[in-house]
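WARN no homologs supplied; continuing
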Amino acid sequence: MLRRGMGVAAAALLALAWGGTARAQQRDLTVVSWGGAYQDAQREVYFRPFQQASNRRLLEETWDGGVGTLRAKIQSGANNWDVVQVESEELLLGCEEGLFERIDWAAIGGREHYIPQAVNDCGVGTILYSFVIGYDRNRTPTGPANWTEFFDTARFPGKRGLRRGPKTTLEIALLADGVPAGEVYRVLGTPAGVDRAFRKLDSIRNDVVWWERGSQPPQLLASGEAAMVVAYNGRLDAANRADGQNFGISWPGNLFTLDSWVVMRGTPNRAQALDFLRFAGQPEVQAGLPPRIPYGVTARGANDRLPPEVLNNLPTAPANAEGALEINDRFWLDNLDRLNQRFTNWLSR
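OK structure emitted
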């Protein structure tokens, strides 16, 4: 069910909060996100309803990511961004470097208002998305049900589309080799575990098509170049909706991550920013996003407001979340250079 406005409870909460922030600000609140169809959906669900409820302007900008951009904004002394959507690695680094305000959780509903993965000292999670198995049901009516079957070329012949790089690829190899999700990063943190992951990749080495951009996996399936792919869940769903494809998704063992809202350090609009986060964190508001674009949302109770046909395509559906692996950004910050070199050497053999 699409919700173009906010619920009564959200409007009431915002009206109460707004009473303390009615003073003139130096500039309008500026919110920064990723652009495209996603930001179009955010505009309808968050940005316009917030402006209508608060009777204040909200300016939008877009960006392409990278903690260096945020660092330069702060170091310039002329930062004009207030609330920014960041990926999990940017959240980790930016928080460590002091680029963000600490979240006043009491001002936005409390930590318990959100799923645990969304709670961070410097950010509040806004969407979840997953790496999943995708396949074309027109060619393979019953696709691989898990990563072990994804690696079974006898039962499921054909090329596999995998992301070119060690991040996610090595985790998938270990999951396919029987490592429980909760043990993946412990195992991958040992030389023997790394060797084990690459041995598993050796088993399908001649059956892999490598991709580098998120748009490529659906194209590989549509062209028949790959029989199955590792893909972002949203890309597969979008191809089904917009392009009439018949792609299947296998969720067991999916790898998920979150994007978060952060408040830039030193903003003169901190109070407005917190009002926006409180508004955007209401479950009745967040429930308007997944029908427009298939990302999981983070407020407790938002899933209860979604019809089953929408919820079942989200990483936050209980059946899809069971056994999922959260990508460990601290592990990759500490190990990416070393494992990138190992992966490059393996590819060139």
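Residues 1-25 have pLDDT under 50 and may be disordered.
OK
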